[in-house]
Amino acid sequence: MAMHALLRKLHREKALEEEQGVTVRELKGPSNLSENRVREILNVLVNRGFAFIDDADREYKYYPEDKRFSELSPDNIEFSDKEYQEWIEKTNKTYSFVSSCDSKGVQNDL
Questions:
Q1: pTM of this prediction?
Q2: How many whole angstroms separate alpha carbon 83 and alpha carbon 78?
């Protein structure tokens, strides 16, 4: 979502210029991501309908679509095992899954 917001911001800033699309290189700096990672995220945005790509020139230009993230289903979010492991390492915390309990299983300790 942050990349989509950044794409929209840079696109608005360039709207008065003839070349309105935003390039990977322009998104790389403010996002603090590598060009490859920016490109990967943009491709996901394009595939999900949140952006479109103009590949007529050598340097592709990306444009935001009006589709909102409220239309995004959590079931469609995918990430690799590597991304998951990197996230776990970054957060430096241990997480565990616990089973949920219904109101019958909860006892008042007061």
A1: 0.53
A2: 10
